[in-house]
Design a protein that fits this description.
Length: 256
């Protein structure tokens, strides 16, 4: 069965999302911009909180945006919209938004300086920024464990970029250059969830993190890799499912 990525990502990040939601402080009249919104969970919640304002979610995946639009309609939200676009160059209205949010959606820019400068142009003076990003590779157990048991080719192509904003000093410099001030970092340490049992977690890991030809190869190396993966998942099975330790930052700032 094909992995439902919209549901998977929301379940994977459920514990992180609770911290992120609490940190946003969306006001009833806020105009909110959500970068890398995916299936729109954070966008919908922002729209509900900004009952007299609005929320715009932007993502590069039309597949996830279709889910976001459908779920927003089912929730009866009329102050939310979704657009296909890359925040590095998307034509946002100037000085429009009061708050820019992103839950793990801003680490993948090819040109992060251009992206954050473009985002800053979309914010009014004094507008707030609230991002959730991963800390470094070595502080996120899944990334380390998969490479250890499966080899250096394990992980999505974007895996290295996932940790690109993990260094507070470098990220502060990047945001300052784009016009943001009072940059702060709050640590979040929560496990990520990969499935209710080992079978479900293995299916997700294969879909997300192994080279696409790996499951089809019927050789000893492939068999050994799958045995090591299963042993890894069994070692991380808890009463709450298959969990891996992780650490993230909630990054806050405002447009100077």
């Amino acid at each position: 069965m094909a992995l439902n990525r919209a549901d998977f990502y929301d379940a994977e990040l459920r514990r992180h999302h609770a911290h992120f939601r609490a940190a946003l402080g969306v006001g009833p009249r806020d105009r909110v911009l959500d970068i890398g919104c995916g299936a729109g969970q954070s966008t919908r919640e922002a729209a509900a909180a900004a009952a007299q304002g609005s929320a715009l979610g932007v993502d590069v995946s039309e597949e996830l945006l279709r889910v976001a639009r459908r779920r927003s309609a089912q929730a009866g939200l009329r102050n939310v919209a979704f657009e296909l676009g890359d925040a590095q160059a998307h034509a946002f209205p100037a000085a429009r938004f009061d708050l820019c949010i992103s839950r793990f959606g801003v680490m993948f820019f090819a040109d992060p300086a251009a992206a954050f400068a473009n985002i800053a142009r979309a914010l009014r003076p004094g507008a707030r920024l609230a991002l959730m990003v991963w800390q470094g590779h070595r502080r996120n157990e899944r990334a380390v464990a998969l490479r250890d048991v499966l080899g250096p080719d394990a992980g999505p192509a974007a895996d290295a970029a996932m940790f690109s904003l993990g260094d507070p000093a470098a990220t502060t410099g990047l945001l300052a250059a784009a016009g943001f001030a009072s940059v702060g970092f709050a640590e979040v340490r929560e496990p990520v969830f990969y499935g209710p049992d080992v079978d479900a977690a293995q299916e997700a890991m294969v879909e997300l993190f192994l080279p696409k030809d790996a499951p089809a190869r019927a050789d000893a190396a492939a068999d050994g890799r799958m045995r090591r993966l299963r042993a890894l998942l069994e070692a991380h099975l808890t009463a709450d499912g298959v969990l891996f330790d992780s650490r993230a930052w909630i990054v806050t700032a405002h447009k100077a």
